[in-house]
């Protein structure tokens, strides 16, 4: 069983406001991230890591129409400790799930990720190409990243403002890179990035 983990407890400092509620088309960035994971046939479960103060978003997720597509929420009370706090919280939950064979860690600020990206990562893992499967865009490593279960304890030990990069660096022999369409990796860190993304989907600016 494969679980998708959406890390959504950052502070969006460069944007100056929460990225989670930015709209592209008829959906927010958070909704797009959830849909990309839950609509993938390879993903059995979805976890979303949020800060407790995102109460409005939490309620919106819980009201999602299809119970089968409602992700499990994890509230990160230590978000100020850096990105690793969200990863640790998810890793703890993943370890507790004995049926979880691997997990794909994804982010909210890449709104053009789609189901094919998740499918490609899972396919590479199932074919035995690697136990850490990393997306690449024009030769550069990025998100999402799949970690096989044996790496969950190492993710649980991370500290500081890092994600799984340290685990990836420690195990080069386990890493498989999967090239993705460059446009799928476009991220939104600044208002200029957001305006470019809006131009792609032709939505009015906020």
Topology, element by element:
Blueprint: E1 2-7, E2 23-24, E3 27-28, H1 29-38, E4 45-50, H2 55-62, E5 72-75, H3 83-96, E6 102-107, H4 115-126, E7 132-137, E8 140-148, H5 152-156, H6 165-170, E9 175-180, H7 191-201
Parallel strand pairs: 1-4, 1-6, 4-5, 7-9
Antiparallel strand pairs: 2-3, 6-8, 7-8
What features would you highlight for this structure?
single chain; 206 residues; alpha/beta; Spore Coat Polysaccharide Biosynthesis Protein SpsA, Chain A; two-stranded antiparallel ribbon; 7 helices; globular
User: What is the strand content?
Assistant: 15-25%
Rounded to the nearest angstrom, the radius of gyration is 16 Å
The protein's oligomeric status is single chain
Low-confidence residue ranges: none
- CATH homologous superfamily title: Spore Coat Polysaccharide Biosynthesis Protein SpsA, Chain A
Helices and strands, in order, run as EEEHEHEHEHEEHHEH
